[in-house]
Specification:
The complex is a heterotrimer of chains A (290), B (415) and C (383). With 290 residues, chain A is mainly α. Chain A contains eleven helices and two strands, in the order ααααββααααααα. Chain A has a domain at 20-215. Chain A has helices at 2-32, 39-57, 59-80, 90-112, 138-160, 162-172, 174-179, 184-210, 216-231, 236-256, 263-275, and strands at residues 128-131, 134-137. In chain A, helix 1 runs parallel beside helix 5 (138-160), helix 1 packs across helix 6 and helix 2 runs parallel beside helix 4. Chain A is globular. Chain B is of the alpha/beta class and 415 residues long. Chain B has two domains: 35-154 and 293-369, Response regulator (Rossmann fold); 157-285 and 371-400, Response regulator (Rossmann fold, 3-Layer(aba) Sandwich). Helix content of chain B is 46%, strand content 17%. Chain B has 15 helices and 14 strands. With 383 residues, chain C is mainly alpha-helical. Chain C has a domain at 27-279. Helix content of chain C is 66%, strand content 3%. Chain C is globular, with a radius of gyration of 21 Å. The two termini of chain C are 24 Å apart. Classes of the chains: A mainly alpha (290), B alpha/beta (415), C mainly alpha (383). Chains in contact: A-B, A-C, B-C. Chain A binds chain B through residues 2-3, 6-7, 10, 13-14, 106, 109, 113-119, 121, 126-128, 134-135, 137, 139-140, 208-211, 213, 215, 219-220, 250-251, 254-255, 258-259, 261-262, and chain B through 45-50, 53, 182, 208-211, 214-217, 219-221, 223-224, 226-227, 240, 243-244, 247-248, 250-253, 268-269, 271-276.
Chain lengths: 290, 415, 383
């Protein structure tokens, strides 16, 4: 029984990481119609920026600097090359963003080496917390709360600000928004930067749990796509639901039937695509042949 | 449309011809010179890039030293490098290129058993000697053994025997919990360790299998371990998975509450895990601080490596260095580069370079040399920027921990 | 039927045989010269063979992407699947009389069946949804094979299968036999070619011919029509789903065929042939080479495989350089190398994007009004 509770908590932590990465991915896809294979690179850059700063100035500095650095990097990419590809066919976007992801991964390897690095954790959070019958690592709990708080902030931005309004409208009908005079150009860049910043923050925040190496970007990217599909491309709450579902599924399967724990998330994605292709909370119509 | 096709192809062909004429020179296969080509097939990208880079440093050091003293039988040693990316198919392709295009007559390097097994079968087909460097899985000299392949590094059986024997004395009667990577290497380590320690009274509480590869999150396994409150936690994971798991186990308080054992470690992994490796027990085939003190050959190597690269060598680097010298010795003793003659020498000669007197077992080409059980020093006591991470607990004589011949399923070719 | 009014039919009637012969001759010459040219720039015989085999796989992939307009990110399941099936057939069904034909054919048929099975559920989706679904299936296959223990060799793969002989008439040809050395004078001597290259080159030639014929056939025309504007093709009376399934099956079979050949050539097969990197590599080879072209996949495969192989021996920065090359390729040569050389240029780019956008990346149903891309059905494909 205890192990089930532990598994559920672990699934929550893992799920929240997926949610955070997927939220950026899904918003960017919904508004900019960009399939971004470089999204994992944002996570990785955030992780390394955090690693460098956390060692010297502490975790808080890392958590502030990582999203800012990643957002700046994202804006650079947007201005230089990505904006010409919004709305284009998936194959072009794929090759471009994949190329970017490769360059980032190798650059990180060049600078930091290939070995997995340990992240410093502040002593206050280094121990375990008694949670009923089990002892759960304090940092993981703090992390979970922190991510939830961050997601609420993002949600508020989307629901309550003008930029958010343009984002939501853009997900529904991009062309109409432009015709109505919304400054979609600037909003697009900001949306992209926010999506990247979230991934960067998660990178810095999750690395005390999962350690850092240049390949983390790719290792979290594919499950994040699974989450986005399951939740629904373009849906914020879909990403939340999908992430938690996939995280829990993976975690529980690991204790119930370990060999299936990798397969099960793809099975889930396949089932969603076959039975409800728009995702659990998605809205776009997808044609289906009978 | 047909014309477009022809035109496009024609343009491409012309461009190709131009490239050929202009770019051809360096790769023309020159007339044979007094050169001996060795292929260095190491991971330069992917999870083991640090290990690969260190091996390369060691190879280059050895080759330069050898060439400065006249080469091998008067032939200058030239190296050609490939990046295995830690992928078996890529490693094979590299080996093929090195052999076919560059004329390599010996291939070496590597950092995982899947890669070693793939390259080993290719080298066997091509009649090229393969000095398998960093491969720990038993298969390399067991089910997948080949006449042309020699593996000096300790194998999983040896490591787990050594580790189990040393730890059983101290923790014999306690509760042991295992987290095992779910593939051949993991299972081998688990079976070997449990066989030894259970005989001394250890209770195997549970063995949690983690899917391999692809497990980034060990929290489920660790949570179960934490709940079981074991005396000993054995993390049977390799390389970056091991570092990940050990780092995560700290979050569950396991680094403090249990004695953690891992089958194999090297300097880079210990540096990656930092203070989470304090008091973790493991095995290594070579540890620079210990060996440099005890063997002049090791001291020469470590000093030369440090002088050139400013850091001490990892145990993979030592194996790379030794492999090069062993090959040189074998060629010179055979009086020829003919692989069959060299194999004959390697099977029947004892040698000593950086460790004690050692040799290869004839039946499986597994190196017979010592296995050290070490324990992570507390961070503050680690010298050399983290490289000096260990204290040596016990040194096991190679022969005493090797898998007995009767248990081997190696069917080696006759040539 | 409108067939008689299509340009392909016109070509057919006006001596297309001459065009076919010319195509075959040019391609054969190119393939004969290829290993020599490759040798002179740092390649070697084995690399030439690998490129031929991988090109077959990429061509198979392109049947789906370029002509049916469906991006699959899971084609490694057919490539690796074909390889494993051939290996298992060889090791278990015919260890004493290893017959290359039977092994490859058996693997191809089995892969085609797999493609039909998977295709029957996947082809109802479009765009990125289709791509992700194929990815899901491929990953499942990957992880299942990885845990396959004795049958699949797990992480180490399958090793050392018997050398398969190719039976032709009364003879049994050993493809590992060498081709006599070719002296290119100042450019050196090519002495490392094996019969394997001859075999692979002939196979590639036939596959190219087959693909070219396929795209000009009525099947190809209808496929193109479906890709351009599925709704309109439905109105005309074509069962789009069946055509798409057929394309998927053909594509999977071709790629599986290549995978089987590769396994037999290597004598080993490992799980990375099923992995996500391998799937991605087909996408990259094809895009860099040129999507809606017959030779695009070949050129793309040749260039990238060459670069990866030779460049990785020169510098540890090769992967960084490769990433930069991909970025440059898609920014400056969006129609791929062959597509750009074939004179598409700006007109081609607009048309290419327009064609692929008839099925927008979201998988949203085509609007019920006039199609956004103003092209007529049927569309001539550039071969």
């Amino acid at each position: 029984m205890e192990s089930l509770i532990e598994a559920l908590l672990n699934g929550l932590v893992l799920g929240l990481i997926y949610v955070a990465i997927a939220v950026g991915l899904t918003i960017v896809f919904g508004t900019l119609r960009l399939v971004n294979f470089a999204h994992g690179a944002f996570y990785a850059v955030g992780a390394y920026v955090g690693l460098v700063l956390a060692g010297r100035y502490g975790l808080l500095a890392a958590f502030v600097a990582a999203p800012i650095a990643v957002a700046a990097f994202a804006v650079l990419l947007d201005r230089l090359v990505l904006r010409f590809f919004y709305g284009k066919d998936a194959t072009s976007q794929l090759l471009l963003t994949f190329g970017i992801a490769l360059v980032v991964e190798e650059a990180l390897r060049l600078i930091f080496g290939g070995t997995t690095q340990r992240y410093p954790v502040p002593d206050a959070l280094a121990g375990s917390f008694a949670l009923g019958p089990i002892q759960y690592p304090a940092y993981r709990l703090a992390f979970a709360l922190g991510i939830i708080a961050m997601l609420l902030v993002v949600w508020l931005i989307i629901e309550r600000t003008n930029y958010g309004l343009i984002v939501r409208a853009g997900i529904r009908d991009r062309i109409m928004v432009q015709l109505l005079g919304g400054n979609i150009r600037r909003a697009s860049t900001i949306v992209f930067a926010i999506g990247a910043a979230i991934a960067g923050l998660v990178g810095a925040a999750a690395s005390p749990i999962y350690s850092v190496n240049p390949t983390v970007g790719f290792s979290f990217l594919v499950p994040s796509f699974v989450v986005v599909v399951v939740g629904g491309l373009g849906s914020f709450w879909g990403a939340v639901l999908g992430g938690l579902l996939i995280g829990e599924l993976q975690s529980v399967t690991t204790i119930v039937f370990p060999p299936a724990s990798n397969v099960v998330i793809y099975l889930c994605m396949a089932l969603v695509l076959l039975l409800r292709p728009q995702g659990l909370l998605g809205e776009s119509e997808v044609i289906r042949q009978s | 449309m047909k014309q477009t096709l022809s035109r496009g192809r024609f343009v491409a062909a012309t461009a190709g011809a131009a490239a050929v004429t202009l770019g051809g020179a360096p790769y023309v296969i020159a007339a044979p010179t007094k050169e001996l080509v060795v292929g260095l097939n190491v991971p330069q990208t992917g999870p083991y890039s640090d290990q690969g880079a260190d091996q390369l440093r060691a190879y280059n050091l050895a080759i330069d030293e050898i060439n400065a003293k006249g080469g091998i039988m008067g032939m200058k040693v030239r190296s050609t490098v490939g990046d295995t990316q830690a992928k078996p198919a890529v490693a094979r392709d590299n080996a093929q290129r090195m052999i076919e295009r560059d004329g390599a007559i010996m291939v070496t390097g590597g950092s995982s058993t899947a890669v070693a097994v793939a390259v080993s079968s290719l080298c066997q087909d091509k009649n090229v000697i393969f000095m398998a460097t960093l491969t720990h899985g038993d298969e390399t000299t067991n089910q997948n053994c080949h006449k042309h392949t020699f593996r000096r590094y300790n194998d999983a059986y040896m490591s787990s025997q050594a580790l189990a024997r040393t730890m059983a004395t101290k923790y014999g009667g306690g509760k042991w919990f295992y987290i095992t990577a779910d593939y051949a290497w993991g299972h081998s380590n688990f079976e070997n360790i449990t066989r030894v320690v259970e005989a001394k009274g250890a209770k195997t509480v549970k063995n949690v299998l983690t899917p391999f590869p692809g497990t980034v999150d060990f929290s489920s396994a660790l949570a179960q371990a934490q709940a079981a409150k074991p005396d000993v936690l054995v993390v049977i994971e390799f390389g970056q998975d091991m570092v990940n798991c050990v780092n995560q186990s700290a979050q569950f308080g396991l680094t403090k509450s249990a004695k953690i054992l891992v089958p194999l470690v090297d300097e880079y992994m210990a540096i990656g895990a930092k203070d989470n490796f304090d008091n973790v027990a493991s095995t290594v085939p070579f540890y620079y601080q210990y060996h440099a003190q005890k063997y002049p050959g090791a001291k020469r190597f470590v000093d030369a490596f440090r002088a050139r690269y400013k850091v001490p060598p990892s145990n993979g680097a030592e194996c790379a260095y030794a492999d090069m010298y062993i090959y040189k010795m074998a060629v010179e003793k055979a009086g020829s580069t003919d692989p069959h003659k060299v194999i004959d020498v390697l099977e029947n000669t004892k040698f000593q370079f950086t460790k004690e007197l050692e040799w290869y077992r004839k039946e499986d080409h597994q190196g017979v040399n010592s296995c050290l059980v070490v324990e992570g020093l507390p961070m503050k006591q680690r010298a050399d920027g983290g490289f000096g991470f260990a204290r040596v607990l016990e040194v096991h004589n190679g022969e005493s921990v090797m898998e007995p011949l009767s248990a081997l399923s190696c069917k080696m070719e006759t040539a | 039927m409108n067939a008689s009014r299509t340009s392909a039919a016109r070509a057919r009637r006006s001596g297309v045989l001459a065009g076919d012969v010319r195509f075959l001759i040019f391609t054969a010459i190119g393939l004969a010269a290829f290993p020599l040219a490759l040798h002179a720039v740092g390649g070697y015989g084995g690399l030439a063979t690998q490129i031929c085999i991988l090109s077959v796989a990429a061509i198979g992939f392109n049947v789906l992407l370029g002509y049916a307009g469906m991006l699959s990110y899971g084609h490694a399941m057919f490539y690796g699947g074909g390889g494993y099936l051939a290996a298992i057939l060889l090791m278990r069904a015919m260890p004493a009389h290893p017959n290359l034909w039977l092994a490859v054919l058996g693997a191809t048929i089995a892969t085609a069946a797999l493609a039909l099975a998977i295709g029957s559920v996947t082809v109802r989706l479009y765009g990125i949804y289709f791509a992700l679904l194929t990815l899901a299936f491929a990953q499942m296959v990957f992880f299942i094979v990885e845990q396959g223990g004795e049958i699949t060799g797990g992480d180490d793969g399958l090793q050392s299968f018997p050398n398969a002989l190719l039976p032709i008439g009364p003879w049994s040809i050993d493809l590992t036999a060498p081709v006599p050395p070719i002296d290119m004078g100042p450019l050196g001597t090519v002495s490392d070619l094996k019969l394997w290259y001859v075999f692979a080159a002939i196979v590639l030639l036939l596959v190219l011919w087959f693909t070219r014929a396929l795209t000009r056939s009525q099947f190809g025309e209808v496929l193109g029509a479906i890709r351009e504007n599925e709704e309109r093709s439905l109105f005309v009376g074509f069962n789009a789903a069946t055509y798409r399934l057929a394309a998927f099956a053909i594509s999977g079979a071709l790629t599986g065929f290549a995978g089987a050949m590769r396994a037999l050539y290597d004598g080993t097969v490992a799980v990375d042939s099923l992995g996500i990197d391998r799937s991605g590599s087909f996408v990259i080879y094809t895009i860099v080479g040129g999507v809606q072209t017959v030779f695009g996949p070949v050129v793309g495969t040749a260039i990238i495989v060459y670069l990866e192989n030779v460049l990785s021996g020169v510098t540890p920065l090769w992967r960084l350089i490769e990433g930069l090359i991909f970025i440059a390729a898609i920014v400056f040569l969006p129609s791929g190398i062959v597509g750009t050389l074939g004179g598409r240029g700006k007109r081609g780019r607009r048309a290419l994007f327009g064609a692929l956008r008839a099925r927008p990346a979201t998988g949203v149903a085509p609007p019920a009004g006039p199609a956004p891309a103003a092209v007529d059905v049927p569309r001539e494909t550039n071969a």
